[in-house]
């Protein structure tokens, strides 16, 4: 993780030490409850490589936006893992049930684009993640 991205993560309360990127391969993707990409292009590429992932692959902003439709998941007695599965099932059902307004869900790549762009991207991610957490935990 580059220093500017780490600074933005820390600003928003994230733990950034030890964060490393890795290639998203088949074993990793098959184990994941949900796969969130930054852009539609990344999402399409991932589903082309592994079609079985269609129902659990979204852009970050698409996933957050879709979760705002319909009732919240009320699963107080469920484990966090079970809530995440229910949340992905809800998003997949909503996406396949009706035409969700197509808007630009891409989050731009801030690499080498300066502090202001990193801040903008970090804020976009923070808004989406806050929505996801709120929906997942019925906050």
TrEMBL record:
It comes from the Bacteria. This is Phosphotyrosine protein phosphatase I domain-containing protein. It comes from Subtercola lobariae. The lineage of its organism: Bacteria, Bacillati, Actinomycetota, Actinomycetes, Micrococcales.
